[in-house]
């Protein structure tokens, strides 16, 4: 009976035998006079507690089995117990479980409990991730883990090519202390599971967790395996500590499935795979890899799958079906986790029985295809918790774990920062050069097939949130591939995502690469952001522009013809696209050069910045362009900053220039130093659309120290140019001093 069970458990707790020397086991660690004695007593205590826990576990197993038998006699189904206790899959019980009696809770010593995980103990986490969308989910998962963690982490990602590229760049630029990342090629594992028919929306990647004993390093003994749609609400070390509660035979830790799927009563003729009772959910798994390899896991799950597929024909829930069929045959191998370690938020689940207070929550699992739209009476709370991490500033998670070693790269960065002179008037500018910005490449799905003739051109630009409205217009004007770097906060990136997914124009364009550079510091790192867009262009040629410009209709095809005509593949040329501007927010865009010249004469259009900064584009020679029918060469002049088409392997932008001033000028200057010919295209043009002044130009105009530092950076740039190009660079310094 329940009363008998409570008496036995209480008896076990109170009847723990004292140490052989007669001292009080519970009080001695608190009262020991010396550190050595305290350590010794604590070790003895921990050993006895483990013995008692194991004895309790055995008795609970006997009781649950006898109760299960009684249930059958009484006509109750043996699988009816919520929790599968009768199968020996022991849930972790203790003072934190909330189901102990007051007598039991009062029976615990007030001495500090031994932590389940040692300080600086490395925790291993594995995750299967494929495709653009999954990488965004992984970032939110990782944020929730990092927010709560107090231990070093090693993430193991099984990825396709896309996810590998995105996540490797992200973690390399994130630079979180005490975090290691390893990648494993999912393509090499596909043959292990491709023979299994799977109806689940996750496809072949939903079966990859079966291969982890083979995919992960042979010397890795245990790992926490997580789905990408998981959110942590506690320190992952608590979950890692449960490995120590495994019996000698247990190899897998799982939470019971909280839906009725495996009970087989969801609809007429519903036939799920075999499972113990309600079965188990594989969104959160503790895998004891060392033991799994020892028992021949790879062969065992294959035999299970082959046997069941003879009648089931395919899996419905991917790896979860095979795990459950395996556990049905081998119940002694599973360690059942309390259900708060995987609160499953799909429709019609028993997840609400896993918690009574917010503090009960450990892990939230959005395991419905509906995700945030799932039905649950507390879904608004869960959604807000998820959105908190979704929009959380990832830079704040770069905090050190004090007392744990840091990688050399972080130490070298810290040393470089310490070498800066904080009394330097331009300290903030110099510090900005050392800032490492997080970068999330291909934030949205990107598909590009290279042109067979090798003439393709990518439009390259950068923008911030206040220029988002230009994207649809640019896509309408430019049919070719686009590489855009977006300088945004985590929250702004989510606003952009919602905007892009709602736009009929943007969601249908798969050849646009959106690369998010996350905000950090007080300056807009405009050239760093440009370089991110430039590096991730996939075509032989790039059109370096700004997002405020609309290219003429048909410019993409015109440039592809021109790069062939001017033999760009074998010559160093920078093709200048003449720039114009309008002061009108609504413009009837010119459809030809003749129409543009007419609008220029009528005062509807102007040559770009003629009234503010004529030197920036005067060398284009607009007077000659009006009548030109063939490309013509122009010479570099001081402060010339045209928009150009060049080969993708051109020099990158100089990242010392941040905010407003000299960011494009310096780039064109280096193109000239590398002996690129500046060639103006006679039948190409672009039009700048009006917008409010940027914050950076306001700082430039209002701050004398800002302008002073910009001049300092110019001088240093010239010095570096002289060292790089020798006497040929003297003309730039001379030209600068004469203006």
Automatic annotation (TrEMBL):
GO BP terms in the entry: protein O-linked glycosylation via mannose
**Bilayer topology term:** Single-pass type II membrane protein
Q: Which UniProt keywords apply?
A: Glycoprotein, Glycosyltransferase, Golgi apparatus, Manganese, Membrane, Metal-binding, Multifunctional enzyme, Signal-anchor, Transferase, Transmembrane, Transmembrane helix
One GO term in the molecular function aspect is: glucuronosyltransferase activity
Pathway note? Protein modification; protein glycosylation
> Where does the record say this protein resides?
Golgi apparatus membrane
Q: Where is the composition biased (Basic and acidic residues)?
A: 102-111
* The organism's place on the tree of life at top rank: Eukaryota
Give the residue ranges for region: Disordered. Answer: 65-114
Recorded catalytic activity of this chain's protein = 3-O-[beta-D-GlcA-(1->3)-beta-D-Xyl-(1->4)-Rib-ol-P-Rib-ol-P-3-beta-D-GalNAc-(1->3)-beta-D-GlcNAc-(1->4)-(O-6-P-alpha-D-Man)]-Thr-[protein] + UDP-alpha-D-xylose = 3-O-[alpha-D-Xyl-(1->3)-beta-D-GlcA-(1->4)-beta-D-Xyl-(1->4)-Rib-ol-P-Rib-ol-P-3-beta-D-GalNAc-(1->3)-beta-D-GlcNAc-(1->4)-(O-6-P-alpha-D-Man)]-Thr-[protein] + UDP + H(+); 3-O-{(1->[3)-alpha-D-Xyl-(1->3)-beta-D-GlcA-(1->](n)-4)-beta-D-Xyl-(1->4)-Rib-ol-P-Rib-ol-P-3-beta-D-GalNAc-(1->3)-beta-D-GlcNAc-(1->4)-O-6-P-alpha-D-Man}-L-Thr-[protein] + UDP-alpha-D-glucuronate = 3-O-{beta-D-GlcA-(1->[3)-alpha-D-Xyl-(1->3)-beta-D-GlcA-(1->](n)-4)-beta-D-Xyl-(1->4)-Rib-ol-P-Rib-ol-P-3-beta-D-GalNAc-(1->3)-beta-D-GlcNAc-(1->4)-O-6-P-alpha-D-Man}-L-Thr-[protein] + UDP + H(+); 3-O-{beta-D-GlcA-(1->[3)-alpha-D-Xyl-(1->3)-beta-D-GlcA-(1->](n)-4)-beta-D-Xyl-(1->4)-Rib-ol-P-Rib-ol-P-3-beta-D-GalNAc-(1->3)-beta-D-GlcNAc-(1->4)-O-6-P-alpha-D-Man}-L-Thr-[protein] + UDP-alpha-D-xylose = 3-O-{(1->[3)-alpha-D-Xyl-(1->3)-beta-D-GlcA-(1->](n+1)-4)-beta-D-Xyl-(1->4)-Rib-ol-P-Rib-ol-P-3-beta-D-GalNAc-(1->3)-beta-D-GlcNAc-(1->4)-O-6-P-alpha-D-Man}-L-Thr-[protein] + UDP + H(+)
Q: Which GO terms describe its cellular component?
A: Golgi membrane
| Necessary cofactors | Mn(2+)
Q: Which Pfam families match?
A: Glyco_transf_49, Glyco_transf_8
Main role?
Bifunctional glycosyltransferase with both alpha-1,3-xylosyltransferase and beta-1,3-glucuronyltransferase activities involved in the maturation of alpha-dystroglycan (DAG1) by glycosylation leading to DAG1 binding to laminin G-like domain-containing extracellular proteins with high affinity and in a phosphorylated-O-mannosyl trisaccharide dependent manner. Elongates the glucuronyl-beta-1,4-xylose-beta disaccharide primer structure by adding repeating units [-3-Xylose-alpha-1,3-GlcA-beta-1-] to produce a heteropolysaccharide. Supports the maturation of DAG1 more effectively than LARGE1.
The family assignment reads: In the C-terminal section; belongs to the glycosyltransferase 49 family. In the N-terminal section; belongs to the glycosyltransferase 8 family.
| Name of this protein | LARGE xylosyl- and glucuronyltransferase 2
Organism, as annotated: Cyclopterus lumpus (Lumpsucker)
């Amino acid at each position: 009976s329940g009363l008998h069970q409570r008496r036995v458990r209480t008896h076990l707790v109170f009847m723990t035998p004292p140490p052989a020397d007669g001292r009080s086991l519970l009080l001695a660690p608190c009262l020991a006079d010396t550190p050595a004695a305290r350590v010794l007593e604590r070790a003895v205590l921990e050993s006895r507690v483990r013995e008692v826990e194991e004895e309790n576990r055995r008795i609970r197993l006997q009781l649950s089995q006898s109760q299960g038998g009684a249930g059958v006699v009484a006509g109750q189904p043996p699988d009816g117990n919520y929790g599968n206790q009768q199968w020996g899959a022991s849930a972790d019980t203790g003072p934190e479980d909330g189901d102990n009696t007051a007598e039991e809770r009062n029976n615990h010593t007030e001495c500090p409990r031994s932590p389940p995980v040692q300080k600086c103990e490395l925790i291993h986490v594995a995750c299967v991730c494929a495709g653009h969308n999954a990488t965004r989910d992984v970032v939110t998962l990782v944020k929730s883990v990092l927010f709560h963690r107090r231990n070093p982490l090693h993430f193991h990602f099984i990825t396709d090519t896309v996810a590998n590229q995105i996540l490797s760049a992200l973690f390399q630029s994130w630079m979180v202390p005490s975090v290691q990342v390893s990648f494993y090629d999912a393509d090499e594992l596909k043959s292990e599971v491709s023979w299994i028919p799977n109806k689940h929306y996750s496809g072949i990647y939903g079966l990859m967790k079966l291969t982890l004993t083979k995919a992960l390093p042979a010397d890795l003994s245990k790992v926490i395996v997580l789905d990408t749609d998981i959110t942590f609400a506690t320190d992952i070390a608590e979950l890692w500590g449960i490995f120590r509660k495994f019996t000698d035979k247990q190899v897998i830790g799982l939470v019971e499935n909280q839906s009725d799927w495996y009970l087989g009563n969801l609809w007429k003729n519903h036939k799920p795979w075999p499972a113990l009772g309600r079965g188990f959910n594989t969104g959160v798994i503790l895998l004891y890899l060392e033991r799994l390899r020892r028992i021949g896991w790879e062969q065992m799950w294959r035999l299970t799958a082959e046997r069941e597929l003879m009648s089931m024909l395919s899996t419905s829930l991917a790896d979860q079906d095979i795990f459950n069929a395996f556990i049905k045959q081998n119940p002694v191998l599973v360690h059942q986790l309390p259900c708060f370690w995987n609160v499953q938020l799909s429709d019609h689940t028993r997840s609400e029985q896993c918690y009574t207070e917010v503090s009960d929550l450990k892990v939230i699992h959005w395991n419905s295809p509906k995700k945030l739209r799932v039905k649950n009476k507390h879904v608004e709370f869960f959604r807000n918790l998820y959105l908190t991490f979704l929009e959380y500033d990832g830079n704040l998670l770069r905090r050190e774990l004090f007392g744990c070693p840091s990688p050399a790269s972080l130490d070298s960065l810290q040393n470089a920062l310490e070498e800066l002179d904080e009394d330097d008037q331009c300290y903030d500018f110099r510090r900005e050069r050392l800032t490492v910005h997080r970068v999330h490449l291909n934030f949205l799905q990107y598909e590009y097939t290279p042109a067979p003739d090798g003439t393709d051109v990518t439009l390259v630009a950068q923008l911030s949130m206040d220029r988002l409205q230009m994207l649809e217009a640019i896509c309408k004007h430019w049919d070719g591939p686009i590489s855009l770097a977006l300088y945004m906060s985590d929250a702004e990136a989510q606003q952009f995502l919602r905007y892009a997914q709602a736009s009929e124009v943007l969601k249908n364009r798969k050849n646009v690469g959106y690369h998010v550079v996350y905000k950090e510091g007080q300056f807009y790192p405009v050239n760093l952001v440009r370089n991110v867009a430039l590096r991730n262009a996939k075509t032989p040629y790039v059109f370096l522009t700004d997002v405020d410009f609309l290219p003429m209709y048909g410019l993409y095809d015109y440039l592809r013809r021109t790069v062939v005509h001017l033999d760009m593949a074998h010559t160093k040329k920078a093709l200048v696209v003449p720039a114009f501007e309008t002061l009108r927010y609504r413009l009837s865009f010119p459809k030809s050069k003749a129409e543009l010249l007419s609008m220029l004469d009528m005062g509807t259009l102007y040559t770009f910045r003629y009234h503010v900064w004529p030197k920036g584009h005067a060398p284009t020679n607009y007077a000659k362009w009006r009548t030109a029918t063939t490309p013509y060469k122009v010479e570099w002049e001081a402060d010339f900053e045209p928009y150009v088409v060049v080969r993708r392997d051109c020099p990158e932008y100089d990242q010392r220039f941040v905010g407003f001033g000299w960011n494009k000028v310096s780039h064109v200057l280096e193109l000239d130093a590398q002996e690129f010919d500046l060639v103006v295209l006679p039948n190409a043009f672009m039009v700048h659309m009006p917008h409010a002044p940027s914050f950076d130009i306001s700082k430039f105009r209002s701050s004398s120290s800002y302008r002073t530092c910009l001049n300092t950076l110019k001088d240093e740039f010239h010095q570096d140019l002289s060292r790089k190009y020798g006497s040929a660079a003297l003309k730039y310094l001379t030209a600068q001093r004469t203006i």
